[in-house]
Amino acid sequence: MPDRLPLSAFIICQNEEAYLGRCIESLDLCAEIVIVDSGSTDGTLALIETFIERGFPIRLFRESWRGYAGQKQFALEQCREPWCLNIDADERLDDALRKALPTLLEAPASVVGWKVARRPYLIGYGFTPQRVRERKNLRLIRNGRGRYDLAQRVHEGIVPDGEVSPSEKGSLLHFRPLPMDEQILKENKYSSLKADQIVEAGRGPRKLKMVFNPPLYFLRLYLRNGLWRCGFPGFIEAMTGAVYSFLTESKIYQRNALKVARASEPAEGAADTRSDAQ
Question: Which residues contact residue 131 at a Cβ distance below 8 angstroms, ignoring those fewer than 6 apart?
Fold first, then answer.
């Protein structure tokens, strides 16, 4: 094992036997790896045990599902090193990020966290190049200087209590090559969680966002983020993001409309214009 850094990586997982091994392998620089399993029934737990036997500093917890934010907050609270890294089971550190970690951890005390880019694997292309990356998100945080917003059902993130800087070097590699028929089920699930979160917060339908957000989402991914560099696989990735945006906004609209319809069922043959009036 190489010299380890004062860093706790934390992972939540369930049935991730196919992906988790590559993730753990990339974390050999970490002084601690916290894994929280929520009931795996495949070979995930046995795989983790093989890494423990090989000397990886893994602390394994079994915890019932608390939701994405709640599960990650539990994992974060188990970390004991000065710095904590949020990484998913289907992600791994690229070589550039591994080399950059020692410098990032030596940041001045005023910096409490680092935002890190993520490069997805596109079916028919491979991992996107360095110049084509998703938006950077806060993944590296000083222990005790941030926590998850438990109200977030999906796309959960750490809320810091100080300055956060973007890392100019390195990325997380995201490898989960789902064909479209499986990917659309994932987008449907995530958009439902997002729509429920927004409706439960008391927010009404967002008609303009339903019209304009999907094409803007596509343009942001395809042009600004540079997915045009990846040919048709990049086009598919950007279009999938637009579909997620449309599903979210349409579900918000329909959930609000159904509240009205259920409160007063229309007469047979009557036109339902109430949702349009919202």
Answer: 226, 229
Q: Residue type for 133, please?
A: R
Please state the length of the chain.
Answer: 278
Q: How many C-beta atoms surround the C-beta of residue 277 within 10 A?
A: 7
Collapsing DSSP to helix, strand or coil, 230 comes out as: helix
User: What single string gives the DSSP state of each residue in 6-53?
Assistant: EEEEEEEESS-TTTHHHHHHTTTTEEEEEEEES---SSHHHHHHHHHH
CA–CA–CA angle 118, 133, 243 (5° rounding): 90
In this prediction, residue 51 carries a pLDDT of 98
Q: How far is it, in rounded angstroms, from Cα 228 to Cα 13? A: 32
Q: What is the pLDDT of residue 3?
A: 83
Q: Centre a 10 Å sphere on the Cβ of residue 144 and count the other Cβ atoms it contains.
A: 13
Within 13 A of 183's CA, how many CA atoms are on the CB side? Answer: 16
Q: What is the pLDDT of residue 277?
A: 45
Helical packing angle, 231-263 and 180-200, nearest 10°? 40
Residue 130 has, within 13 A of its CA and on its CB side, a CA count of: 8
Q: Dihedral, CA atoms, 11, 12, 16, 19, nearest 10 degrees?
A: -30
Residue of 133, 145, 125 whose CA lies nearest to 173: 133
Report CA torsion sign: 181, 216, 218, 198.
Answer: negative
Query: How many whole angstroms separate alpha carbon 234 and alpha carbon 187?
Result: 17
Residues in the chain with pLDDT < 50? 275, 277
Q: Which two tokens stand for residue 183?
A: 């990917």
- pTM (two decimals): 0.90
Q: Nearest Cα to 137, choosing from 107, 172, 103?
A: 172
Phi, psi dihedrals of residue 60, rounded to the nearest 5°: -100, 130
- What digits encode the pLDDT tens for the residues 123-175? 999 999 999 988 899 999 999 999 999 988 888 899 999 999 999 999 999 99
